[in-house]
Each structure stands twice: as structure tokens, then as C-alpha cells.
Amino acid sequence: MIGTPPGDMQETVAASNEYWEGHAPEKRRNQLANNLAQVDPKGLAAMEPGDLVISTYVTNGPK
User: Fold this and answer.
1) DSSP per-residue letters across 3-63
2) Which of 1, 10, 40, 43 is most exposed by smallest CB count within 10 Å?
3) pTM exceeds 0.70 for this model
4) How far apart are alpha carbons 12 and 18 in whole angstroms?
5) pLDDT at residue 1 in the model
6) Whose CA is closest to 24, among 59, 63, 60?
């Protein structure tokens, strides 16, 4: 991102996943699992980069 301080993305992602595992409500966990089950890997591979970012963002919305 432009204008943001440097950061350790691996550490940030790990902290985010740890928080999710410890605090996510069952309803949101179920919605994320449902969203991920509907993802078509071939469809993702065929997407333009901008569309892929949007699709991934929407799919992971519950998280």
C-alpha cells in the first residue's frame, strides 16, 4: 500500500489468523466455509488481477 509504514506481513497474517481461530463466532466461521466451498479454482485462474482481488475480498468477507 502506498503511504503505509513498512510492516511484516507474515507476522500480521499470523496474528490475524490466531485472532480468528480464538474469537470468530460460529456463524461467521460457517459463512466463510460456505464461501470457500463455492470458489472455483479454474474461475479464479481465469480472472483479471483486479477482479481476483475483489473476488478474494468478498469471499473472505466473514473473516
Assistant:
1) TPPP--HHHHHHHHHHHHHHH--HHHHHHHHHHHHT--HHHHHHS-HHHHHHHHHHHTTT-
2) 1
3) yes
4) 10
5) 60
6) 63
